[in-house]
Amino acid sequence: MIVSVIAAMAENGVIGVDGELPWRLPDDMKFFQRTTMGHHVITGRKNYESIPDRFRPLAGRNNVVVTRDHAYAAPGATVVHALEEALHLARNAGETEAFIIGGGQIYAEAFRAGVVDRIYLTVVHAEVDGDVYFPDFQEDAWAHTWNEIHPSDERHAYSFTFHRYERISGSNPLSRAAS
Ligand SMILES: NC(=O)c1ccc[n+]([C@@H]2O[C@H](COP(=O)([O-])OP(=O)(O)OC[C@H]3O[C@@H](n4cnc5c(N)ncnc54)[C@H](OP(=O)(O)O)[C@@H]3O)[C@@H](O)[C@H]2O)c1
Asked: Ligand 1: distance of its center to the CA of 100 in Å?
């Protein structure tokens, strides 16, 4: 099973503000829907609660919410109490690619644990105010395999670039960072 992170980040690293996304970029949202459709999506409890009621659980995907709260309930989603438990569940279900969809704490935990194989990162060409950041993922430990630019237009206040990175085979970005 491939473990992927999918995120959108401003040039200054911001991914969230006041519990929400700092922008509205419909074509990035479509990319997110298209890429994650049919798969397990693993989310921190705060990110899950930031999704408007009418859109959660995210349709057509197995939603897995990570929380330390053993009393937490999320109708239509599976609740687990550790990232490893979420990955285990997806693997046991025969998943081919599980998506870690944020937010900042869960991304950081995934990179710390060294479990990420692939990163889909949309870089939003703006510097925005925020309170949640994408972790430093040691870009040189990854192969940059794809990018595509999306210009700003009447529906998108900012231009942005889709990027894809694959973990360099056999390299653990954590051990490389430490060496
Ligand atoms: N731009 C993007 O691509 C993107 C994507 C996703 C989210 N976001 C933004 O990111 C922000 C939310 O991120 P966040 O960092 O504040 O929160 P988060 O990562 O979504 O959720 C944090 C919560 O996850 C649970 N958790 C974290 N580590 C855990 C562990 N080791 N074991 C068990 N549970 C654990 C805890 O839940 P409990 O407190 O319930 O125990 C914790 O409070 C929002 O602004 C959202 O809009 C942006």
From this structure: 11
Predicted pLDDT of residue 176: 42
Q: Is the CB of 46 under 6 A from ligand 1?
A: yes
Q: pTM for the complete prediction? A: 0.95
pLDDT digits (tens, 9 = 90+) for 137-153: 988 889 999 999 999 99
Asked if 166 contacts 116 with a C-beta cutoff of 8 angstroms, the reply is no
Q: Write the CB contacts of 72 (distance below 8 Å, at least 6 apart in sequence).
A: 45, 65, 79
Ligand 1, atom 9, residue with closest C-alpha: 16
Structural domains in the chain, CATH included, are 2-159+168-178 (3.40.430.10)
Q: Is the CB of 6 under 6 A from ligand 1?
A: no
